[in-house]
Design the sequence.
């Protein structure tokens, strides 16, 4: 599938040179774009296709009430510069407070801009999210952002392909987040390097679009620049009627083309991994990279048990940073903060799932719980369904959309030594604030943990 | 980027080895949203020292940095190249460059000139002694000359990199050589694809 999309986008090919690939959609946000725009200005260039480019403010935006000012001057500046650059170069930009604003990887799909078979780039590594639609989508650096702005294309070397086949069906209470954490635990943070991952098999086909996005989102945590899932009826149903999706006859024509993208029967991959969905249980990360995960029912591993010396050392370092002792039950670990949000798990289904756990219950004494919807549309939908009431009644904070505590560029941060259960995608040292300790979990585990005060699944709650 | 054919100018001696990009442009400067203005941050920590060579009046306006070995190690930040160029340097001479820094230079149009250690030392000493010494670098010929001290050396770039400098091709410029292909491709894109307008 990745190869089909690739071949359909080659603009120019020459021996010994990377292929020049056409880019169908370029997503822009405030952090990685300012120098790219300045580069254009310096060289006297324009944006080739502003109509294939869209910008949103997400990384820096505060998630507190919209009428409060932005306190951090650097954040404020980056947001202002984004607005000014977009105005100058004719790009549509969704600013803080705009109904279309949200995390860049949440708004692309919900506006129907993300479609099967497209090439999509953004100056953010979690662009892999869009692969859930069968698009070839990956993150790029600032120079590449400038390149795409100027030429709507990128010189790239063809990646290798890896199939990740998940057979069987997931057990009730196990989410796609648990599945992807298990996959990363299996292949390691470097296992996907140089590959485009294609997730397939019965368990993947059964997933909703939102659950598929969660999986593809985290492909980058396995080292892969992109992850893809073949488009099917679930994809088509999701897209139908979305603002930028084709309409009427065009939709029918598109559907035909999309159905063709599926990997041909018998096609070979450079590598193949096979998993059994029935063996997967809710997962929690215990370390400082997303491959350091374990089932929630397990104990914190003993570094001595790792055969590989590098892994052993990494585990020992992680435990020291995380303030954990080998052998303790994961369920005995208490947290101070719970974060439900980020482009991994901030869509409406994630919030519904969390709300079903919070409903009629109370957050444990002294715990801070932040619930940050991925976009204004998600927020509005959640409010229409009354989810916000459930959250606030339980004692959680219901915030404005943005990246928030996923990378702590805005004021939502952990303090030194503070421990969180987080539905985001990275548990690196200091990712959620200097000295903060992050455990990656699904929205269901995050919510149950908020109520229990320690790691728990909804089934553990009375 | 602008074409670079021949650079004639005075040199600044930077008598240190293993200068890394954190020293070239300290990380405080990475928060900026512009691509220009980094010249003010060039070697900013060292510039606090009044005796640092960039603070020496006699070297103002010089366009060639004559550096020690292993220049540009460390983080891959392109800001290091932006800072050197924004300050006014057109070329850096060293006996050895860090790979990523070297490649960043060729992409932005700052000429990295690798010469023998002996030549590098000779130039360093001469420039330190005489701020007025004139150096000429010819990209097409691959030559570095300082007739006043009898230096006439060569440096090597990949033929493609030489082309890049002579024609002023940055990566975008290179891609735009295929402009006709791009336009042809755009004409054939399926009509159902979305636009953001
Ligand atoms: S939510 Fe986190 S991972 Fe996603 S785009 Fe924002 S900062 Fe990046």
Sequence:
């Amino acid at each position: 599938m990745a190869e089909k999309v690739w071949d359909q986008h080659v603009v120019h090919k020459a021996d010994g040179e990377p292929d020049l690939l056409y880019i169908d959609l370029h997503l822009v946000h405030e952090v990685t774009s300012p120098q790219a725009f300045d580069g254009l200005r310096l060289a006297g260039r324009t944006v080739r296709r502003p109509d294939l480019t869209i910008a949103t403010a997400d990384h820096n935006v505060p998630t507190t009430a919209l009428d409060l000012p932005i306190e951090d001057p650097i954040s404020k500046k980056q947001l202002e510069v984004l607005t000014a650059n977009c105005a100058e170069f004719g790009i549509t930009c969704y600013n803080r407070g705009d109904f279309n604003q949200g995390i860049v990887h949440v708004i692309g799909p919900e506006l129907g801009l993300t479609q099967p078979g497209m090439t999509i780039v953004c100056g953010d590594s979690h662009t892999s999210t869009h692969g859930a639609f069968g698009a070839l989508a990956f993150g790029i650096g600032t120079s590449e952002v400038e390149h795409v702005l100027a030429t709507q294309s990128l010189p790239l070397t063809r990646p290798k392909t890896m199939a990740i086949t998940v057979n069987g069906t997931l057990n009730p209470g196990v989410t796609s987040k648990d599945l992807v954490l298990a996959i990363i635990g299996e292949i390691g943070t470097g296992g996907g390097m140089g590959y485009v991952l294609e997730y397939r098999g019965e368990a993947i086909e059964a997933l909703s679009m939102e659950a598929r996005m969660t999986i593809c989102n985290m492909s980058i945590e396995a080292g892969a620049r992109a992850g893809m899932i073949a488009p099917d009826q679930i994809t088509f149903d999701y897209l139908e009627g979305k603002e930028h999706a084709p309409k009427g006859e065009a939709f029918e024509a598109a559907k035909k083309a999309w159905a063709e993208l599926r990997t041909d029967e018998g096609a070979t991959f450079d590598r193949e991994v096979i998993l059994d969905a029935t063996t997967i249980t809710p997962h929690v990360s215990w370390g400082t990279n997303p491959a350091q995960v374990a089932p929630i029912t397990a104990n914190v591993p003993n570094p001595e048990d790792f055969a590989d010396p590098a892994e052993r050392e990494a585990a020992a370092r992680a435990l020291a940073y995380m303030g954990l002792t080998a052998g303790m039950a994961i369920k005995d670990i208490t947290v101070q903060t719970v974060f439900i949000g980020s482009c991994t798990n901030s869509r409406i289904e994630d919030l519904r799932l969390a709300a079903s756990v919070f409903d009629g219950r109370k957050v444990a004494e002294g715990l801070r719980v932040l619930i940050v919807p991925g976009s204004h549309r998600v927020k509005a939908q959640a409010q229409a369904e009354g989810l916000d009431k459930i959250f606030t009644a339980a004692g959680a904070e219901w915030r404005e959309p943005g990246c928030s505590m996923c990378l702590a560029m805005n004021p939502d941060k952990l303090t030194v030594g503070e421990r969180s259960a987080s539905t985001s995608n990275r548990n690196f040292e200091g990712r959620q604030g200097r000295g903060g300790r992050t455990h990656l979990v699904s929205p269901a585990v995050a919510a149950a943990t908020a109520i229990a005060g320690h790691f728990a699944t909804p089934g553990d709650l009375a | 980027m602008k074409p670079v054919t021949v650079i004639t100018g005075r040199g600044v001696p930077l008598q240190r080895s293993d200068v890394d990009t954190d020293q070239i442009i300290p990380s405080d400067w990475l928060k900026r949203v512009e691509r220009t203005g980094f010249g003010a941050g060039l070697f900013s920590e060292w510039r606090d020292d009044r005796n640092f060579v960039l603070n020496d009046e006699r070297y103002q306006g010089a366009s060639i940095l004559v550096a020690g070995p292993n220049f540009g190690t460390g983080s891959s930040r392109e800001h290091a190249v932006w800072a050197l160029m924004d300050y006014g340097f057109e070329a850096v001479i060293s006996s050895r460059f860090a790979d990523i820094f070297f490649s960043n230079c060729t992409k932005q149009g700052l000429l990295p000139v690798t010469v023998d250690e002996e030549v590098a030392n000779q130039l360093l000493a001469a420039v330190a002694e005489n701020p007025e010494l004139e150096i000429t670098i010819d990209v097409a010929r691959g030559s570095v000359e300082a007739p006043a001290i009898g230096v006439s050396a060569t440096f090597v770039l990949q033929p493609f990199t030489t082309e890049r400098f002579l024609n002023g091709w940055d990566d975008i410029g290179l891609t735009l050589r295929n402009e006709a292909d791009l336009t042809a491709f755009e004409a054939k894109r399926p009509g159902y694809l979305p636009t953001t307008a």
Residues 6-188 of chain B form a domain with the Aconitase; domain 4 fold (CATH 3.20.19.10). Strands of chain B lie at 6-14, 64-67, 91-94, 111-114, 134-138, 143-146, 151-154. Chain B touches chain A at residues 1, 31, 33-36, 78, 107, 170-172, 174-176, 178, 181-182, 185-186, 189-197 (CB under 8 Å). The two ends of chain B are 31 Å apart (CA to CA).
